[in-house]
Design goal:
Blueprint lengths: L5 H14 L6 E9 L7 E10 L3 E7 L3 E12 L2 E6 L4 E3 L4 E4 L5 E7 L8 E9 L5 E11 L13
Parallel strand pairs: 1-10
Antiparallel strand pairs: 1-2, 2-7, 2-8, 3-6, 3-9, 4-5, 4-8, 9-10
């Protein structure tokens, strides 16, 4: 009786590890988009993003919008101003970053249609880690009424 060859076991293990699905290092919870009225050309995406090892939210896209930008609202003297963050948004390791009205958010601009309450909007987020590796997250954000506040709960994408 022949003994099984160790190298075959090693090769099988290596193959299994190569095909094992990668665990996401970034999670997105409670993603939602504010509903729009007909002819409105912009809306915001809000959520909680947590990056296990840290990184930056560097890009976003959606088939609903011609342009998608990462923004912040901040006081400039006595005036609240919105500005794009061309270098992206820092995601400290293990800490949830809130995207919320009046703060950090993702702007969906040049809308191709109306975002109606109850719809789901597909959005792609790109997170870059400290070594420059990019992680792409495909999420679906629920459209909430115009006056909606952030939803409660812990729905993850």
């Amino acid at each position: 009786m022949k003994k099984p060859r160790i190298r075959h076991l090693g090769a099988a293990l290596a193959l299994a590890l190569c095909t094992w699905p990668a665990l996401a290092q970034t999670t997105v919870e409670d993603a939602w988009v504010r509903a729009t009225v007909p002819q409105q050309k912009a809306t915001g995406l809000f959520a909680r993003i947590t990056s296990a090892q840290g990184g930056r939210l560097v890009a976003a896209s959606s088939p609903l919008a011609g342009v998608v930008e990462i923004h912040e609202m901040a006081m400039d003297g006595n005036v609240m101003r919105m500005r794009a963050l061309p270098a992206g948004l820092a995601l400290p390791a293990g800490k949830a970053v809130k995207l919320e009205p009046g703060g950090y958010h993702v702007m969906l601009l040049d809308l191709k249609g109306q975002a109606r309450d109850g719809d789901m909007v597909p959005v792609t987020l790109v997170v870059e880690d400290k070594d420059g590796r990019k992680e792409t997250l495909e999420i679906k954000a629920a459209v909430r009424p115009l006056g909606a506040a952030a939803p409660m709960g812990g729905h993850k994408h």
